[in-house]
Design a protein that fits this description.
two-stranded antiparallel sheet, 335 residues, globular, 6 strands
Length: 335
């Protein structure tokens, strides 16, 4: 685990640095971004701005307002499936709740993970009928439902902290921006996969009910136990990393043939700056990398003092060699 020292003095220094530091424009793996309308140059996957206007009637092309990572090929492959050890009662409770939610979610989405018999010669259709693997529609249903829920916690946390900051007339130490970045990133996952399927009325009603219940419960819990809420989200993101890792494995083994040569949606190419010829596999890799970032961020925030500590992610974004291979920062008090 990595260790980050926090103290009243270091918090003051961090806040001063935040005020004085110029905006970060680019690093090896991350970029600051701005929105472009269809009447202005827009960002392409090659990096520099293009002078070619966006096609008429296609809406906004290129970039978005909030910070988000853009990954190299090495970074996309560096993500590991990790687990944060449950050390406290609230950790254990959060982990159990996530497992319960996962169980219900698996039933609703029809997710199956039965081991394929050794030496099996069954075709893709036979494996699907036998309940060993999901088809394209099954994967999309699961991913769409997951992303509609995953976009809730960041917005709830940002809303609560925003209101507290207004009420107390005090700085928030960067937590609001960190949470908003997560919320928008999860929403962009949803917008990406919406290009592949238009959900029916029953699916939309299911999402409406689940979102309404989850938003209000998470809001109430965040008022009283924000650390436990971030731990809960950290465990939730562990499940997301596991699911996308499994999806990548299935796709690379040819078990989702509908996506093998399917071009990446244009919104994904713009957002993650993928190559113009990128396929769905590259999209899934990028989404998994994002989920590992949320896993790292939320487990790290759960280790901090939510009232006094500065969000380390508003000062500097760690690389994927950290976020993909380490579960969290650990809070230690500096001398």
């Amino acid at each position: 685990m990595l260790r980050v020292a926090f103290s009243p003095t270091s918090s003051i220094i961090a806040r001063t640095t935040l005020l004085r530091a110029p905006p970060q424009t680019a690093t090896v793996s991350v970029h600051r971004k701005k929105a472009h309308s269809s009447q202005t140059p827009y960002l392409t996957s090659s990096g520099p701005e293009s002078t070619t206007p966006a096609p008429h009637g296609t809406g906004i092309h290129g970039d978005w307002v909030l910070f988000h990572p853009v990954y190299s090929q090495e970074e996309l492959k560096s993500v590991e499936v990790l687990h944060q050890e449950c050390k406290t009662f609230s950790d254990k409770l959060a982990f159990r709740l996530v497992k319960l939610a996962r169980w219900g979610f698996d039933i609703v989405s029809g997710y199956k993970h039965k081991p394929i018999p050794p030496g099996s010669t069954m075709t893709i259709d036979e494996l699907r009928k036998g309940g060993y693997i999901l088809n394209e529609k099954g994967w999309l249903a699961r991913i769409l439902f997951l992303e509609t829920i995953a976009g809730v916690p960041g917005m709830v946390a940002a809303t609560v902290r925003h209101l507290v900051s207004l009420r107390l007339m005090k700085r928030d130490n960067g937590w609001i921006h960190t949470c908003l970045e997560e919320a928008e990133n999860e929403r962009m996952h949803l917008m990406t996969f919406m290009n592949l399927r238009e959900p029916g009325i029953f699916f939309r009603a299911l999402i409406l009910g689940a979102q309404g219940v989850f938003y209000n419960l998470f809001f109430l819990m965040y008022l009283f136990v924000p650390n436990a809420c971030h731990r809960f989200v950290g465990y939730l993101e562990e499940e997301a990393v596991f699911t996308y890792t499994y999806c990548i494995d299935e796709l690379e083994k040819g078990r989702i043939p509908e996506w093998t040569n399917k071009p990446a949606p244009q919104i994904a190419i713009d957002y993650w700056r993928l190559k113009p010829e990128a396929k769905m596999l590259e999209v899934i890799y990028a989404v998994r990398a994002d989920e590992s970032t949320h896993r790292f961020v939320n487990h790290s925030l759960a280790n901090l003092n939510t009232k006094t500590d500065v969000s380390p992610f508003c000062l500097r974004e760690p690389g994927m060699d950290t976020k993909g291979k380490t579960i969290s920062y650990v809070r230690v008090r500096s001398e």
